[in-house]
Amino acid sequence: MDRRRTLQWMLAASAAMPLLARRVLGEGEPAAHGEGAPVAPTAHGYGTDPDLTKIYHPGDLWPLTLTRAQRRTAAALCDAIIPADTHSVSASGAGVVDFLDEWVSAPYPAQHEDRALILEGLLWMDAESSRRFAKQFADLGESSQHAICDDVCYEKKAQPQFAVAARFFARYRDLTAGGFYTSPEGRKDLGYVGNVPLLKFSGPPPEVLRKVGLIPPA
Amino acid sequence: MQKNYDVIVVGSGAAGGQSAYTLCMEGARVLMLEAGRKYSPESETPMFQTPDQAPLRGGSTEDKRFGFYDATVDGGWTVPGEPYVRSTEDPGGRFDWWRARMLGGRTNHWGRISLRNGPYDFKPHSRDGLGMDWPITYDDVAPYYDKVEMLIGVYGASDGLENTPNSPSGCLLPPPAPLVSDLLTQQRAARLGIPIVAVHRAVLTQQLDFRRAPALLHPGNLKAQKIIAADMQRRAACFWATPCGRGCSIRANYQSTTVHLPPASATGNLHILTDAMVREVRLHDSGLAQGVTFIDKTDGSVHSVAARVVVLAASACETVRILLNSKSARFPQGLANSSGKVGRYLMDTVGSSLSGQIPLLESLPPQNEDGAGGEHVYAPWWLYQQQHAGKLDFARGYHIEMGGGKQMPGVGTMKGAEWLTAGSYGRKFKEDARRYYGSFVGFAGRGEMIPNEQSYCEIDPTVKDKWGIPVLRFHWQWSQHETRQAAHMQKTFAAIIEAMGGRVKDGPTLDGARAISPGGFIIHEVGGAIMGADKERSVTNQWCQTWDVKNLFLTDGAVFVSNADKNPTLTIMALAWRSADRILDLMRRKEL
Lengths: 218, 592
Prior knowledge:
Helix content of chain B: 25-40%
Number of strands of chain B: 19
Shape of chain B: globular
Structural class of chain A: mainly alpha
Order of helices and strands of chain A: HHHHHHHHH
Distance between the termini of chain B: 22 Å
Number of helices of chain A: 9
CATH superfamily of the largest domain in chain B: FAD/NAD(P)-binding domain
Radius of gyration of chain A: 20 Å
Shape of chain A: globular
Largest interface: A-B, 71 and 79 residues
Oligomer: heterodimer
Strand content of chain A: under 5%
Strand content of chain B: 15-25%
Structural class of chain B: alpha/beta
């Protein structure tokens, strides 16, 4: 965490300062997955000619780097964003935590930038939870989690002291959604029914055309 | 490798593939040199892989700019070890050069949009006094458009619109059914006077006519007819799944590797060398091209090969680079450059895009909208008359490409949706995702750039690539014709979205200089060695034959005199076929 960013975050969450000061980024609990060192990634990318037909899993190409504590907060937050409902499982149930870990551990500049924002944001979530409820975010009940999320979920309307946290939340929600809706469970939830060979492509069925008003009601 | 080739073809993409195909089918012995690696779409294409099976859910990275599953190998706007230079840091002078280092080149991942230039497009200077005329007319090229369409397979319709040529019956395959977003766009755009019709794309919506087409493609050549008839039967029709940009293992769309090279190889006349990076064309004392010198990238060794004819089809800028690096006492400024025009009049396509969210398309029942793996409809340029009457503040036109529907969710699904969801999360966010998924439409303008004196490339005096070959330095500048056109695109797209009852996140970008994509971004770069009727002002004649060296031909986009809004690939192939017919003719007459 560079000094300028650290200051921004500390100003944004001054009440959480003692906790932030105690926990330096990336230190603390051992990595939950493999022996990936909890430091900024140094691995190489997949290069300009990877095998495209192979199936890849998070951790195959570069080590995952989130600590157990980071993954716990990450899971709680992505499930607050995409909880289980009658349609589908929660984000963590669809493997989104592994995806987020893969993302923030990736050796590419865009992901590297996200890493800083996200690791600091996860710290902030716990710091804010501790300040308000004397618990980690993952240990909060739904209404307490929502009390925090409500303050940061809409960047445009967030109070100035939550501006940076709201930027984090928006990015975290984008990534959670990206991870969830690319999973088989997420695709099904959205009603994506393609990626299967067809003998014929017929275009939209009458009920769709009717709903859009392109043909008269039945 | 044998010793006695008739023709060396440098490059294996649309131009090299077509040149080699025509030459081999008619009996010429061809050596093809490709700078990239061997590539097999049948075994390497990720057809049904889903984003969750890819690193980072298939999203774009420095290594794969168009996402993990894009077919491009060892390429992109940067290629490791193969730099290029920009003359300025000014954003308005930016030019980015997309290359692929693989057999088949960029035809493996392209958009497959295959539009004919119209009659106006060959005589732009005569119409508005800008740019230059081609030394040929539409009628000269039309028979070759017919042949290319029949060979590669292009779906579309003949709508009889201005400067948007019809294809003769038997050339086009039936277009796919429009998506619901296409139909809604068509209905609403009609109110603005914008026609939406079937686009032309190189995808087989049904099997090619292997009984009728071969005799039309190769009259009097039974061997060629037999080979292409057999190959047409080995290409499957589209099965309405998987994006074309990944390539196609069932050979349902056009890539040089699945359409041109297999039948050309079946003649026994084609020898392909991959990992062969051509450095220069060697000149014989007689003033004829003797052959080329290339570097075997696998071990760095340098080789020379000879032939009666050399065809450069390396992509417009790479062809220019080879010419400028081929210096001799006779051509101190680069081969075939007595005019000083090699590198000049580099053009790309004017590009700008805008997407909208359409409430009428929300919460529609699930339906499979994968379709043909790319666009089904488009709007050809529709304002010829208004422009002619002086009602527009720019010259030349653009067409509109469009897309929508419930496409396979990607890592960007629901990204930045706060403007619609007011920051929802939790169960409400999941409801919102179901509601908005499939309710977006995207519009992309593809317009004509007029060649200018400030847009060109030359050899950088110091920088070399990892093979020691001097690299290109690019100079780039848009004129107001292009930036105003980009602003017009933005206004038009916003008007269509509004007519659909939709909304735009950040509004259209009305400052054309900001709305226009940087040079090279649309990957339609052409020009650099233009054809012409006057050898003082052009590099080749109408047959793509250089004025200075009669056995040297340039069959890629380098010879383009203008860059109509029609996307260059189909025209590259038509001109390459025409040029190959000329080469065959001259060889038969012993003039080469």
